[in-house]
Design goal:
The structure is a single chain. By secondary structure, this protein is an alpha/beta fold. The chain has 3 domains: 105 residues, 3-Layer(bba) Sandwich (Glucose Oxidase, domain 1); 106 residues, Enzyme I, Chain A, domain 2, CATH 1.10.274; 277 residues, TIM Barrel (Alpha-Beta Barrel). It has 22 helices and 17 strands. The chain has an 8-stranded mixed sheet. Helix 4 packs antiparallel against helix 5, helix 13 packs across helix 14 and helix 19 packs across helix 21. It is globular, with a radius of gyration of 25 Å. The protein starts with a strand and ends with a helix. It binds phosphoenolpyruvate and magnesium ion. The site of phosphoenolpyruvate (PEP) has 11 residues, from strand 11 and helix 17.
């Protein structure tokens, strides 16, 4: 058995598919046999072209002509005589090994393209990076993995999955995933919850221990992975899967019901989404709003940023679909563990503490303004709330609002219609939590992002499984920050939501009701159970619970207190 961190609930039984991601270390070598190196390079190019054509066909079948067309540009690079000619020349003239010659020439092309004014050419840099990686792997005699190409039901096992890897997952085939790296709030874990597939992360060496022939039971609730289980155990788990399905049926009667406590306090329970289609899942699960639309997923798995029209259509779809219910759209939050291949982002030692989210948007004004234009234009189709991520200071909030106002004026002067919208911020930096009395005066609402607030409060990287024990949502220090934020907002007559993963945890529910939280936003699959539970809770009792929790000395004591409370519900 392997023990990891349960990151997305559910149980699945399936065959292992190992996803190999090769790390390329390329060093300069002086070769004697130049023609052998040239042949190596040419053969690798041929293999890459064949592989790309296969992926293109599969992508076209699954996702349509347009998606498949992305690979045309990749194939063109391989066949570009200027590109391959320069590599062959370098091998011949400098007796260079093929891998090194390829790297040097590709880097030169990438830098040239990245610095061009024309957007089309800038996009080519990302294509060259992709193709070069494939050729490199073939020079070294490896196979390039492709997630899109998986067409049988499997449990995916990887050392790590980036959010854009996860964005490519087809849940018809990928029934669950296991990664060595990551914690409960890494973005690939969040994606797994959105896809509603079980995931276990932070297994440390699960990748090494598992092999392609293995059958595993993956338990996303407990983080357990059973390798090649006996018939008896498989039956036991099949029974558990059935039991879980029955419970879900009982919650279904809450789809149309409101989240009202026994003593009549009404709360709002909504869903987090990463793409426009997902609002339907939120509605089907009884969600009353979209509490967080993580727009960065619109920018992933592609070779260029989505343009204004494309974004406008995405936001309009969600706003119309939610029929007047609040839709909180968060502006682009890239950086940290989320990168975009087509943006030149400096390599940073501490990306979660670096140029991330709004900070990055301020340095890439074109991208930020395009998003704001699309959002404001879409505002006429529903109840739009715009939310800025990673605010640390009042100056940042004012700067973001200034961009928004400028964009609004520009649109109005162009004859576009713009509705009045609500403006809010995420509270995910301790500095913002502590100064929430100041910030509350200049926003309409707060939404607490516990995933980041916890990592910044405990100084523990949310991606690092070695410090995952410091993900302590029930620690009094975090509860005190939440308490400060809610009190400060309420003093100004503003409401407070939570869209971090804590909002969807069963244990957190009575505690947060007691602290006075107004809105909860979570993965769609968590909503019904929470509505069911709210209707069984007395809010005056949760106040006593919250006050007691605030005075405890550690997380364990708080959990004990909550579990006692929940055992009586
Ligand atoms: C958070 O930090 O809690 C949050 C909701 O934002 P993200 O997980 O996307 O960083
Ligand atoms: Mg965050």
């Amino acid at each position: 058995m392997i023990q990891g961190i349960g990151a997305s609930k559910g149980i699945q039984i399936g065959k292992v598919y190992k996803y190999f991601q090769k790390e390329l270390i390329i060093e300069k070598e002086v070769v004697k046999d130049v023609s052998k190196e040239i042949t190596k390079f040419q053969k690798a190019c041929k293999k890459t072209e064949k592989e790309l054509c296969e992926i293109q066909t599969k992508t076209q079948e699954k996702m349509g002509e347009e998606a498949g067309a992305i690979f045309d540009a990749h194939i063109d690079i391989i066949n570009d005589p200027e590109f391959s000619g320069a590599i062959i020349n370098k091998i011949s003239n400098e007796y260079s090994n093929a891998a090194y010659a390829l790297k040097m020439i590709a880097d030169k092309f990438i830098i040239t393209f990245e610095n061009m004014d024309n957007e089309y050419f800038r996009e080519r840099a990302a294509d060259i990076k992709d193709v070069t990686k494939r050729i490199h792997i073939h020079i070294e005699g490896g196979e390039m993995p492709s997630l899109v190409a998986i067409d049988e039901e499997v449990i995916l096992v990887a050392k790590d999955l980036t959010p854009s890897d996860t964005a490519q997952l087809n849940k018809n085939f990928i029934k669950g995933f296991i990664t060595d790296i990551g914690g409960r709030t890494s973005h690939s874990a969040i994606m797994a919850r959105t896809l509603e597939i079980p995931a276990v992360v932070g297994t440390k060496n699960g990748f090494e221990e598992l092999s392609d022939e293995d059958t595993v039971i993956i338990n996303g609730d407990t983080g357990e992975i059973h390798i090649n289980p006996a018939e008896e155990m498989i039956n036991e788990y099949k029974f558990k899967i059935k039991k879980q399905e029955k419970k879900k049926e009982a919650w279904n009667e809450y789809i149309k019901k409101k989240a009202i406590t026994k003593d009549g306090k009404q709360l709002e329970i909504g869903g987090n989404i990463g793409n426009p289609q997902e609002f339907e899942k939120v509605i089907c699960n009884g969600g009353e709003c979209i509490g967080l639309f993580r727009t960065e997923f619109l920018y992933m798995g592609r070779t260029e940023a989505p343009n204004e029209e494309e974004q406008f259509q995405a936001y309009k779809k969600v706003l119309q679909g939610m029929k007047g219910k609040p839709v909180i759209v968060r502006t682009l939050d890239i950086g940290g563990d989320k990168n975009l291949p087509y943006l030149t982002m400096e390599k940073e030692l501490n990306p979660f503490l670096g140029n991330r989210a709004l900070r990055l948007c301020f340095t890439m004004q074109d991208i930020f303004k395009t998003q704001l234009r699309a959002l404001l234009r879409a505002s006429v189709y529903g109840n739009l709330h715009i939310m800025f991520p990673m605010i640390a200071t009042l100056a940042e909030l004012r700067q973001a609002k200034k961009y928004l106002l400028e964009t609004k004026k520009e649109l109005l002067s162009q004859g576009e219609k713009v509705n009045n919208i609500k403006i809010g911020i995420m509270i995910e930096v301790p500095a913002a939590a502590l100064a929430s009395d100041i910030l509350a005066k200049e926003v309409d609402f707060f939404s607490i992002g516990t995933n980041d607030l916890i990592q910044y409060t405990f100084a523990a990287d949310r991606m690092n499984e070695n410090v995952a024990y410091l993900y302590q949502p029930y620690h009094p220090s975090l509860l005190r920050l939440i308490d400060i934020v809610i009190k400060n907002a309420h003093k100004e007559g503003k409401w407070v939501g939570m869209c971090g993963e804590m909002a969807g945890e069963t244990r957190a529910l009575p505690l947060l009701i007691g602290l006075g939280l107004d809105e909860f936003s979570m993965s769609a699959s968590e909503i019904l159970q929470k509505k069911y539970l709210v209707n069984r809770i007395d809010s005056s009792e949760t106040k006593i619970l919250a006050n007691e929790a605030l005075s405890k000395t550690n997380q364990e004591e708080v959990i004990e207190l909550i579990d006692l409370f929940l055992s009586k519900v």
